[in-house]
Design a protein that fits this description.
Pfam families: ABC_tran (PF00005), GlcV_C_terminal (PF17847). The protein is of the alpha+beta class and about 350 residues long. The chain is built from eight helices and 21 strands. The protein is globular. The chain binds adenosine-5'-diphosphate and magnesium ion. Magnesium ion binds next to helix 1.
């Protein structure tokens, strides 16, 4: 389909006398047919990056290529958004309420002055693909949430785009529909081999869809890799937090152990750079609580149960080292434990992450 190549791309917005460097000298290639995810905190340049790719913003400097064609150059959109073969889906999947499902899906083709019989066959084909063939005469208010969202996708796909651009596409959906929306976009992206760029602050969106991902911080990619690489080996503590829940614990390094009060976490397999103090990162699902040893876990010391809560099929247990109750550590557990009880904290071997203290 289309390979997107970005070279030294920057976008600076001027707000009075101050300059906002929304996108800061990004170079990246998104291979044809691949889904690339952009994760990052709010206000760090994700939407601006997507709008530059779409041709809705002109670069302050740098170039964008679709295959070998220059589509944007410094201070100029060479090829307009409507000529780029892109489809866009934004946060609100808004449909036109006064138009039937058929007319909603047909709308982009009507705008492009496609002949009527061609419109009819194309709309039917896309409706078939998305399971909407039976509801083409209904109006948006007569649809379920899932059908509305499928209609919005159908409208985005009706012109057979080569590139799909998604900006926080699932954040306005109910948690229940969100899962199926992600699965649907993933399926269509894979089947149609659409070169896809999805940006979101929610790692679950990126992990569900992207083959490859980048974390944008202050307009630059702070890390690029497969979603699993970024989740398992985040380059910084900030990236660790952006990609999922994690305990970040200030520790002293003593003889290859990270020491937090009475807890001693072995750093045997971690590369250290001679720091005396580090931040240890451990995800709650890499921790366990037990009085007896567990295979593939290492016992790091005694902790006291502080709080127990339940949600989404899992118990969240907050524990503290027995010698320092000001330190909180979250543990995911399948069974509850009584507050006040003391037990051992176990860490899955190979899952300990170490970051520099800032
Ligand atoms: P994100 O999508 O990651 O939340 P944005 O790309 O929307 O981030 O914004 C990045 C930065 O650029 C922010 O500081 C934002 O205020 C600024 N910005 C975005 N669009 C404009 C604009 N049209 N004019 C001025 N500043 C803008
Ligand atoms: Mg945004």
């Amino acid at each position: 389909m289309t390979t997107i190549k970005v070279e030294n791309l920057s976008k600076i917005f001027k707000k009075g006398k101050t300059e906002v460097r929304a996108v800061d000298n990004i170079s990246i290639k998104i291979d044809s047919g691949l889904a690339f995810g952009v994760l990052g905190p709010s206000g760090h340049g994700k939407t601006t990056f997507l709008r530059l790719i779409a041709g809705l913003e002109e670069p302050t400097s740098g170039y964008i290529y679709f295959d070998d064609e220059v589509v944007s150059e410094p201070r100029r959109v060479v090829l307009g958004p409507e000529k780029r073969g892109i489809a866009m889906v934004f946060q609100n999947w808004a449909l036109y309420p006064n138009m039937s499902v058929f007319d909603n899906i047909a709308f982009p083709l009507k705008l492009a002055k496609v002949p009527k019989d061609k419109i009819e066959s194309k709309v039917k084909e896309v409706a078939e693909e998305l399971g909407l063939a039976g509801v083409l005469n209904r109006y948006p208010k007569e649809l379920s949430g899932g059908q509305m969202q499928r209609t919005a996708i159908a409208r985005a796909l009706v012109k057979d785009p080569k590139v799909l651009l998604l900006d926080e596409p699932f954040s306005n959906l109910d948690a229940q529909i969100r899962e199926s929306a992600r699965a649907l976009v993933r399926k269509i992206q894979r089947e149609r081999k659409l070169t896809t760029l999805i940006v979101s602050h929610d790692p679950a969106d990126i992990f569900a869809i992207a083959n490859k991902a980048g974390v944008i911080v202050h307009g630059k990619f702070a890390q690029i890799g497969t979603p699993t690489e970024i989740y398992e080996y985040p380059a910084t503590d900030l990236i660790a937090r952006l990609t999922g829940e994690i305990n970040l614990l200030q520790a002293k390094v003593i003889e290859n152990n990270a020491v937090i009060s009475n807890l001693k976490i072995p750093l045997k397999n971690v590369e250290l750079k001679g720091q005396n103090n580090v931040v240890v990162g451990i995800r709650p699902d890499d921790l366990s609580l037990s009085d007896t040893p567990l295979d593939k876990y290492v016992d790091v010391g005694t902790v006291k149960i502080k709080l127990v809560s339940y949600g989404a099929g899992i118990f969240k247990i907050v524990v503290s080292p027995v010698a320092d109750e000001s330190v909180d550590i979250i543990v995911d557990a399948e069974e509850p434990l009584e507050a006040g009880v003391e037990t051992h904290l176990l860490v899955k071997i190979g899952k300990i992450k170490v970051f520099d203290q800032s």
